[in-house]
Amino acid sequence: MIDGEVKALRWRCRRGMRELDQLLERWLDRCWGQASDAERAVFRRVLEVEDDKLWRAVLGYESLDDVEAQQMVEAIARLPH
Predict the structure, then answer these.
(1) Domains and CATH numbers, the chain
(2) Burial code of 11-33, b = ≥16 C-beta within 10 A, e = fewer?
(3) 3-class secondary-structure state, position 40
């Protein structure tokens, strides 16, 4: 794991909503270290989604067009606190 990359990703996890910050950082802290390159690529794509669309996907009100990103969002939402 490259510390600089994780720091950059942590910064990108900072959103306009504290709830999103916490969800994204939780995945980064708990899952990034053992994630495959493919999973890491999907997480980076999730970080590209606009806040409002991402939040609606987390709540289940809307699905992302990117199926893999949607699956990751659902997994992130299920992570225990």
Answers:
(1) 3-78 (1.10.150.250)
(2) eebebeeeebeebbeebbeebbe
(3) helix
